[in-house]
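Morning. Coffee machine broken again, so started the prediction first thing and wrote up yesterday's gels while waiting. Chain of 193 residues, entered below exactly as on the submission form.
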Amino acid sequence: MVQQLILASTSPFRSELLRRLQLSFAIAAPDIDESALPNELAAATAQRLAQAKAQAVAKQFPNALIIGSDQVAACDEQRFGKPGTRQNARQQLRLMSGNEITFHTGLCVLNSATGHTQVQCIPTYVGFRDLTDAEIEAYLDKEDALNCAGSAKSEGLGVSLLRYQRGDDPTALIGLPLITLCDMLRSAGARLP
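Came back before lunch.
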């Protein structure tokens, strides 16, 4: 019996990426607390939340491969979440200006029939240019970046803010590492080219 594929995320960016694989899937909204635990490293937060998202919808889908993903952007002890407001986005971009930010993308594939769980964290290292206030304002005037970690949408105009992007999976920065996901899905028995 072919298992249903579920994306435990309402992110339009993640569902758009998953469509690239030309697999049929459904979307389920995980209802979890996305707060970091005290003294938890950014990579550990991303992995824990990716797994928690998959587990949160597992009861609704008893015979499915469930994909959970989460991203935490960090520079040293500073974390950069979804800004939500223009003021927060402006502040984030000022703090990221001239720095390297690591975007930790946690990925989980949970087989709800067997309980088998695969979890990984895929880092992407992003160097931001030195940004002037005028550049930040011009960017925010043109790009709706209030719902993405770190306020910079690399798949859009945010790429103009960067000096470099380094990582093993080019889609990880957008929120769903497809190379790693394909490996996990194959390991779980899904058919992919």
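Residues 4-187 form a domain with the Maf protein fold (CATH 3.90.950.10). Going to sketch it on the whiteboard this afternoon.
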